[in-house]
Amino acid sequence: MPDYDRLLAAHPFFNEFQADYLHQIACLATTVCYERNAYIFHEGDAAEQFYLITRGHVMLETFGVERRGSISIETIEAGEVLGWSWLFAPYRWHFSARTLEEVEVIVLDGVSLRYMCEADPMFGYALLKHMAVIIMQRLQRTRLQLIDMYRADGG
Amino acid sequence: MLVERNDPMLPRWYRIQHRREELANTFTVTLEPQDHEDIPVFDCGQFNMLYVFGVGEIPISISGDPAHPAPLIHTIRAVGNVSNGLQGLKSGALIGVRGPFGTPWPLALAEGKDLLLIAGGLGLAPLRSVMYHVIAHRKAYGRVTLLYGARTPEDMLYRQECEHWRAHLDLDVAVTVDRATESWRGSVGVVTRLIAHALFDPAKTLAFVCGPEVMMRFCAQELEKCRVPGEQIFISMERNMKCAIGFCGHCQYGPFFICKDGPVLPYYQVKDLLRKREI
Ligand SMILES: Cc1cc2nc3c(=O)[nH]c(=O)nc-3n(C[C@H](O)[C@H](O)[C@H](O)COP(=O)(O)OP(=O)(O)OC[C@H]3O[C@@H](n4cnc5c(N)ncnc54)[C@H](O)[C@@H]3O)c2cc1C
Ligand code: FES
């Protein structure tokens, strides 16, 4: 079995967490590998896992406008985290996540993590603080995408 | 006659030797001088003033190989009067050229260091000459990375060349697009997100950033977050120009004349200006 305490401590999302917290989280961890073009989760499904990507690229996508297939939103890659819908009601994925190549992830049981947050507000605060940074970064990036900065009439 | 040739305000006549459509509204021209004399040598990052008869004159970066200044190569996006005028010209047509002008990318300063090139949209044009130079002098630099962001896969400039650079084992090339459909198997998201994933030693890295101002601003902020000092970040600024030699003040940007003090400027010198509107 992988040494999840060490793997989590090395991950940018968890590297500032205390060792005892890391150990509790490590108990919720498993490793899963996906083939290329596999769906890790689908938009609308129950969100119960928190994914740390350790290898490969994943595309977040949503349903396409009529006949245009799916629309790619953003690529998430090794070193990044995937999904926060397990943390917020109604606990449903807002997007689908599809692998662009072989992908390896550490999967954490999101429901148990949520219980840990409720039971230990210090832990809950630390987790939410880190998640807020991720959400803020993604929001900033989405805003830049929306600006459409390379468009021909003003790029 | 000699006085005239050295007058930086007098254009020399060049013939469009060849033109290549790059994207829907973007094309590359190769130019040869009508007088068959040498084309001036240029440094990476410099620009020429291109003059279309009866329409006007605009600054355009030189996007060719500095080791082979002939023919002269420019990639142009048609956005308004003069650039549309250029787009309307066929091979064989004559245009006026003045230059090269402006400050270059500080390649000598980058020797022995990691080099991070970040291009957005058409900003790859002035950085292409840097790529040519770096590939020709590869041993002079540490890790070399090109991060390129385009609007969509269809808007990627120099796509074949990017593929070619990507195949170089001693170059790291990462491309991302702001939006894409399912068929695109590459990265989606703004170019700033590539920075955190790039491998470089921040203390020993020079970053050259070129693209729309908003993109350069956010890239510079991201670079600083990754601990690249502001003095090691260089950006290429754009302003409307008339004389291109520091006389008319048309291109003024705070205390700088972009034609003479720029276009390439150290980020720390313009950082505060970039935060202000309408300068
Ligand atoms: C140092 C320097 C290097 C440059 N290098 C290149 C280059 O390699 N290739 C290239 O295509 N352009 C380059 N430019 C930009 C180019 O000079 C302008 O696009 C050009 O001056 C526009 O003139 P115009 O007469 O065609 O358009 P105008 O009639 O002056 O403008 C028409 C419309 O286009 C908009 N516009 C003006 N400039 C731009 C722009 N840069 N991008 C998007 N919209 C714009 C205006 O806001 C206006 O709405 C460079 C500019 C500078 C200062
Ligand atoms: S264009 Fe005249 S001073 Fe710069």
From TrEMBL, chain A:
SUPFAM superfamilies for the chain: cAMP-binding domain-like (SSF51206)
Cited InterPro entries: cNMP-bd_dom, cNMP-bd_dom_sf, RmlC-like_jellyroll
Ranges of residues in domain Cyclic nucleotide-binding: 13-116
Domain of life: Bacteria
Transmembrane segments: none
Protein name per the record: Cyclic nucleotide-binding domain-containing protein
Gene source species: Dictyobacter vulcani
